[in-house]
Amino acid sequence: MPAQLRIAVFGGADEIGGNRILLSWDDAAWMLDFGTRFAATSRYFEEFVKPRGATLGLRDYLRMGLLPPLEGLYRDDLCCHEPDLWQRYRNHPDYRRVPELKGVLLHGA
After folding, report:
1. Which pLDDT score, from 0 to 100, does residue 91 have?
2. N or C: which end of the chain has fewer CB within 10 A?
3. What pTM value is reported for the model?
């Protein structure tokens, strides 16, 4: 049976910027990331106020909806600040366990 392609869209609909599309099939995936979600980011941050990524990893980004909860996509050192990080998001409607990531296509301004 041929592999079934699954497409999940995170951000970008009804907003400017922030298109994130996860293409997955069998045990592999590609992530397409086209930049910042301007409306969501501007609700929390300004030019001089930035997320606390260096000390808290993904926590602020996930809680504020700036990044989708995609376990297996992000670097381990960004997830290790909270050992139960992914347990908190497993019931979130956007949560996905990403199979082996084969590639990432990034586009930024």
Report:
1. 94
2. N
3. 0.64
Nearest by Cα to 22 from 3, 38, 1, 6 = 6
Tokens of 33: 């990331």
Secondary element (H or E) of residue 64: none
Domain ranges for the chain: 6-106
pLDDT tens-digit readout, 47-102: 555 555 555 678 878 887 778 899 988 888 877 777 788 999 999 998 988 888 78
* Exposure letters 22-35 (e unless 16+ CB within 10 A, then b): bbbeeeebebbbbb
d(CA 41, CA 3): 36
Residue type, 57: G
Query: Does an H or E element contain 43, and which?
Result: helix 38-44
